[in-house]
């Protein structure tokens, strides 16, 4: 139990630390950040449950006002902006990513983690992110999807990095990749 709490807090801190990398601001209010890499790693390394809890802890800290989002943003106001859909999608994306890594055992971990990050932490998150952008920017879903396409190359790069880091960690310290230990 203590180990789980520690890892959840550590990965929430990882997401916060990735927010220190300066965001690339775009004209429609949703910055390009490194924090989605942290969400991907929550799923690929911690697994579905722990990864979701880590992201939820991070979002709780943001909601109470800590400036942990990229660019020093925090507080309830961020949940009323164009990036709200992505923020709502983060824990769901971490869950789906972790679930795929836990259940899919028939391929090398690097491939599984990469596919899981794309499916869970890109496709699933984009469903929520595009919906949030459409609502908050008063756009159609198709218009919001067009805007969101600018994020795809960076998110694919982050999925590749998450896959490589997860695979490298599994090689160096197999017991550290909990997404592979606890699901049989």
From TrEMBL:
**Example of a GO MF term:** biotin transmembrane transporter activity
User: How is this protein annotated for GO cellular component?
Assistant: plasma membrane
Q: Key word Transmembrane present in the record? A: yes
Give the keywords, sorted. Answer: Cell membrane, Membrane, Transmembrane, Transmembrane helix, Transport
Q: According to Swiss-Prot or TrEMBL, what is its membrane topology?
A: Multi-pass membrane protein
Transmembrane spans: 51-69, 76-101, 107-129
Q: Give yes or no: UniProt keyword Transmembrane.
A: yes
Q: Which InterPro entries match?
A: BioY
Q: Where in the cell is it found?
A: Cell membrane
Q: Pfam families, per this entry?
A: BioY (PF02632)
- Which protein family is named in the record? Belongs to the BioY family.
PANTHER family to which the protein is assigned, alphabetical? BIOTIN TRANSPORTER BIOY, BIOTIN TRANSPORTER BIOY-RELATED
Kindly provide the name given to this protein in its UniProt entry: Biotin transporter
Protein species of origin:
Yoonia tamlensis
**Classification of source organism:** Bacteria, Pseudomonadati, Pseudomonadota, Alphaproteobacteria, Rhodobacterales
């Amino acid at each position: 139990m203590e180990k789980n709490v520690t890892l959840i807090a550590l990965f929430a801190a990882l997401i916060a630390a990735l927010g220190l990398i300066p965001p690339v601001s775009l004209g429609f209010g949703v910055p390009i950040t490194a924090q989605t890499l942290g969400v991907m790693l929550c799923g690929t390394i911690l697994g579905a449950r722990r990864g979701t809890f880590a992201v939820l802890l991070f979002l709780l800290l943001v909601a109470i006002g800590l400036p942990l989002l990229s660019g020093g943003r925090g507080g309830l106001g961020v949940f009323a902006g164009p990036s709200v859909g992505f923020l709502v999608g983060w824990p769901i994306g971490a869950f789906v990513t972790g679930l795929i890594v836990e259940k899919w055992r028939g391929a090398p971990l690097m491939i599984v983690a990469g596919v899981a990050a794309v499916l869970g932490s890109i496709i699933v998150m984009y469903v929520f992110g595009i919906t949030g952008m459409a609502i908050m920017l008063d756009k159609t879903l198709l218009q919001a999807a067009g805007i969101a396409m600018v994020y795809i190359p960076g998110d694919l790069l982050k999925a590749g990095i998450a896959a490589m880091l997860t695979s490298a960690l599994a090689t160096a310290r197999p017991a550290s990749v909990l997404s592979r230990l606890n699901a049989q």
